[in-house]
């Protein structure tokens, strides 16, 4: 009964989203207030019915209703209840439903949080959200219904969830990542609404910016969570593989980062308007492309499910409709502004332009590397895969250059910046960062690494230039506390996010330079000695978990002869599917991680064991947390609400007046 | 020339030069860093190049996995059901690596035409089959389930 209710709720949600697409849009076109006002309640209804459907699927999982095909394929009565709930999005159908739930959640949030938005703009934005909803609801109902039954021959027991997914990572990673992915649908909706209404002023950017920043912050955290999860769960010890699906989430992040910077220029200076719209469209298009890559199974990847190509074709068609439609609209309606707003060569505009160009170039190289196997296959050039070296060749230097430009970008002013100002602001940071970069590798570690010197230089350069800019802004205040109070939250957000980039850069580089990675054969009593750590395998014994049995190794770790702790990696065999799984033992720390994973038994009580010492690996994700917090601070800036309010009040009468004539 | 036109011409020239340099670099990098996939039949017939990074795949032939007594070195054969070739790998094998199951290897062929793998990828869940392997199987006559599955129980 419950699954049927869910199915029915999905169909109702489809009907509502069709209405949400059509009615407000028509209303905005003919200036009918009544029709425009339907958008808010339709958006609420859309969310409510999707939420009901989602709840029904959750109930089916909790109740072990194996007559539902999707539940039977992805759950098992032995699983703990929290994994049963997260198993809802452990497969294709359910994760699609989660996608739609997020979409309807964002739609609901726009409907109720943006009271300051002019009625017609809100109607159009919600209609675009509704349109995206129609596409995905059709997709789920026509090709991948999670409520399909296996009747009359319902299995007694489920096939179990892939053990890799029975983990805390599955509980948090997909929802947060999807929040980000789908959040860019809001930026997209704002862009389309701007094209439809021809309204693209600084008020528009002030409405669009907080939404975009929120989505970007979620996506940042989502990607970082995925990387962290892969690190401790896959047991290879890596945190980024340039896997097609990782790239799929990284592409919208790159363009999204360009978008939030371009939006800043559009808001402050009224420049880059068409470019901003284009970026908003592309960010969402890349989110869709990511969904296509993951869902169609066209690429070999750790995320690929066994999928039928029909689904891929459906998303590809939808992608074409969305991209084709919005680009056509863009071609006809893009603001043809020849504003006489000029900026000189050395100005913040120029640095932000460089930021955009670099980010887009990086995105294009990653996109080509990701799609090349598909293209080569389609053109019969053979089956190929593109390895990490390709991505690194472009990504590392371009990203390094981008980081170098970050400091002068922050220190420069809008419109025009004198060399003198840059010199005054950046001389001291330059000295400090060069010194820090040159000294660090000499003090830390046994060998001098040039790349480490460079990374530390870049990291300190960004942070010290930020500090220098902060001091510069406080120079006129009588007391530094007054000055601090005058700084806006979005300024702090920018500083924090940039510091996050510095932290991540340092983490990535130091980790790759100083990691000590050993794959060894170990029998009980044997020792592995790294430069400072000693690992002794004391023994391996069998232990039992709720739905698995495991071989657990006990390894004694000491640092320069001093006892640190015992670490216990496991090799699990899950009872339901018979799958083998590696459970990594971690000793996390701010400056180093110890990482031990068991390989296979080699006979004579010996095991293949992976022993890694990974300095600074936590910094990679710590930086991402900084970035996301920075995004959050920028959203919290009160100027968006105040100014938006004032502008809406000014805009509303004129708009309705326009509509009446 | 009119200054505005000259400016535009310069801009166009800049874009053309910049993008061709970018495309050239990228084509070069792709050429150096892509791994072409070879099915077992092409490796056995000698079509696959020696000492070049390539990718290969097939089913792990049951009974072919041999482990060294002192190191992490493992030897096994990959097959498409008709022909097979030897692989040597030193390192930790993935969890789902097993006899009679599909695997993909990255590495290169040495002079003795033994595949020296630097990376071994196994399927990561019950149903999943790497697309390249699936195709290599179907080209050699049998579909995956018959080739891999039959071996697991038959031999």
Structural category of chain B is: alpha+beta
Number of strands of chain A: 11
H/E order of the elements of chain A? Answer: HHHHHHHHHHHHEHHHHHEEEEEEEEEEHH
Q: Using DSSP, what is the number of strands of chain B?
A: 7
**Largest beta-sheet details of chain B:** 5 strands, mixed, barrel
Radius of gyration of CA atoms of chain B, rounded to a whole number? 22 Å
Structural class from helices and strands of chain A?
Answer: alpha+beta
What percent of residues of chain B adopt helix (DSSP H or I)? 25-40%
Relative strand content of chain B: 25-35%
Major beta sheet of chain A, specifics? 6 strands, antiparallel
CATH class of the largest domain in chain B: Mainly Beta
List the uncertain runs of chain A.
302-306, 652-661
Can you walk through the features of this model?
The complex is a heterodimer of chains A (661) and B (155). With 661 residues, chain A is an alpha+beta fold. Chain A is 66% helix and 12% strand. In chain A, strands 3, 4, 5, 6, 7 and 8 form a 6-stranded antiparallel β-sheet that branches. A 4-stranded antiparallel β-sheet of chain A has the order 2-11-10-9, covered by helices on one side. In chain A, a hairpin with a 2-residue loop joins strand 5 (548-559) and strand 6. In chain A, 52% of the residues are buried. Chain B has 2 domains: 1-34; 36-154, Nucleic acid-binding proteins (OB fold (Dihydrolipoamide Acetyltransferase, E2P)). Chain B is 36% helix and 28% strand. Chain B has a 5-stranded mixed β-barrel. In chain B, a hairpin with a 5-residue loop joins strand 3 (66-67) and strand 4. In chain B, 34% of the residues are buried. The A-B interface holds A 159, 162, 164, 235, 297-298, 300, 302, 304-306, 361, 365, 368-369, 372, 376, 382-387, 389-390, 393-394, 519-521, 577, 579-582, 597, 599-600, 602-604, 608, 610 and B 22, 26, 29-30, 32-37, 53, 55, 67, 69-72, 91-93, 95-97, 104, 106, 124-132, 135.
């Amino acid at each position: 009964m419950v699954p049927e209710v869910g199915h029915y709720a999905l169909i109702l949600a489809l009907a509502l989203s069709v209405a949400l697409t059509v009615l407000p849009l028509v209303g905005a076109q003919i200036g009918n207030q009544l029709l425009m006002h339907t958008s808010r309640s339709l958006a609420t209804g859309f969310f409510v019915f999707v939420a009901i459907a989602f709840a029904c699927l959750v109930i089916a999982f909790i109740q072990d209703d194996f007559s539902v095909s999707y539940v039977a394929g992805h759950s098992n009565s032995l699983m703990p209840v929290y994994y049963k709930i997260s198993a809802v999005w452990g497969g294709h159908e359910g994760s699609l439903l989660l996608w739609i739930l997020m979409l309807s959640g964002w739609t609901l949030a726009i409907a109720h949080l943006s009271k300051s938005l002019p009625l017609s703009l809100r109607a159009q934005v919600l209609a675009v959200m509704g349109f995206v909803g129609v596409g995905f609801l059709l997709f789920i109902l026509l090709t991948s219904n999670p409520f399909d039954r296996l009747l009359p021959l319902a299995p007694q027991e489920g096939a179990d969830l892939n053990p890799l997914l029975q983990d805390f990572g599955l509980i948090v990673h997909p929802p947060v990542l999807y929040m980000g992915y789908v959040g860019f649908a809001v930026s997209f909706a704002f862009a389309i609404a701007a094209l439809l209404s021809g309204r693209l002023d600084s008020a528009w950017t002030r409405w669009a910016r907080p939404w975009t920043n929120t989505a970007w912050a979620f996506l940042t955290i989502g990607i970082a969570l995925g990387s962290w999860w892969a690190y401790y769960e896959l047991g290879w010890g890596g945190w980024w593989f340039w896997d097609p699906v990782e790239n799929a989430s990284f592409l919208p992040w790159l363009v999204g980062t360009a978008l939030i910077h371009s939006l800043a220029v559009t808001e402050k200076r009224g420049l880059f308007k068409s470019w901003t719209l284009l970026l908003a469209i592309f960010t969402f298009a890349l989110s869709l492309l990511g969904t296509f890559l993951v869902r169609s199974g066209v690429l070999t990847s750790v995320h690929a499910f066994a999928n039928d190509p029909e689904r891929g074709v459906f998303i590809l068609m939808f992608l074409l409709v969305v991209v084709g439609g919005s680009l056509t609209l863009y071609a006809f309606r893009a603001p043809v502004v020849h504003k006489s707003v000029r900026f000189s060569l050395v100005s913040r505009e120029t640095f932000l332009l460089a930021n955009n160009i670099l980010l887009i170039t990086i995105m294009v190289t990653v996109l080509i590397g990701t799609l090349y196997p598909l293209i080569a296959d389609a053109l019969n050039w053979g089956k190929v895969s593109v390895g990490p070296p390709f991505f690194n060749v472009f990504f590392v230097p371009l990203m390094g250059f981008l980081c170098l430009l970050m400091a002068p970008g922050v220190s420069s002013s809008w419109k025009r910046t004198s060399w003198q100002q840059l010199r005054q602001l950046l001389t001291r940071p330059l000295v400090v960062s060069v010194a820090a970069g040159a000294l660090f590798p000499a003090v830390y570690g046994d060998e001098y690494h040039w790349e480490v010197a460079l990374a530390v230089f870049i990291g300190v350069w960004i942070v010290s230039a930020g500090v220098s800019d902060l001091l510069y802004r406080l120079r006129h205040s009588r007391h530094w506390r007054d000055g601090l109070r005058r700084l806006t939250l979005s300024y702090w957000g920018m500083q924090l996010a940039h510091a996050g980039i510095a932290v991540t850069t340092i983490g990535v580089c130091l980790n790759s330079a100083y990691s000590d990675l050993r794959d060894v054969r170990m029998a009980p009593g044997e020792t592995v000695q790294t430069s400072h750590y000693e690992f002794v395998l004391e023994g391996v014994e069998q232990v039992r978990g709720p739905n698995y049995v495991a071989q657990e190794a006990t390894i004694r770790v000491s640092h320069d002869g001093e006892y640190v702790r015992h670490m216990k990696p496991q090799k699990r065999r899950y009872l339901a599917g018979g799958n083998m799984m590696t459970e990594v033992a971690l000793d996390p720390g701010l400056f180093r991680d110890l990482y031990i994973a068991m390989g296979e038994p080699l006979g004579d009580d010996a095991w293949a064991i992976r022993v890694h010492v990974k300095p600074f690996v936590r910094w990679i994700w710590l930086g991402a947390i900084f970035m996301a917090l920075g995004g959050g601070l920028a959203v919290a800036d009160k100027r968006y609400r105040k100014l938006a309010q004032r502008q809406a009040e000014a805009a509303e009468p004129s708009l309705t007046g326009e509509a009446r004539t | 020339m009119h200054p505005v036109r000259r400016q535009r011409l310069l801009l166009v020239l800049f874009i053309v030069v910049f993008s061709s340099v970018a495309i050239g670099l990228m084509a070069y990098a792709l050429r150096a860093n892509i791994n072409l996939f070879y099915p077992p039949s092409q490796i056995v017939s000698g079509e696959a190049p020696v000492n070049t990074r390539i990718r290969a795949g097939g089913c792990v032939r049951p009974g072919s996995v041999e482990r060294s007594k002192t190191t992490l070195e493992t030897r096994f054969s990959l097959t498409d059901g008709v022909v097979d070739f030897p692989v040597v790998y030193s390192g930790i094998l993935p969890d789902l690596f097993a006899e009679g199951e599909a695997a993909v290897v990255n590495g290169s062929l040495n002079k003795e035409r033994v595949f020296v793998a630097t990376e071994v990828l196994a399927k990561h869940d019950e149903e999943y089959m790497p697309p390249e392997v699936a195709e290599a199987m179907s080209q050699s006559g049998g579909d995956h389930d018959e080739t891999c599955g039959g071996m697991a129980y038959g031999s």
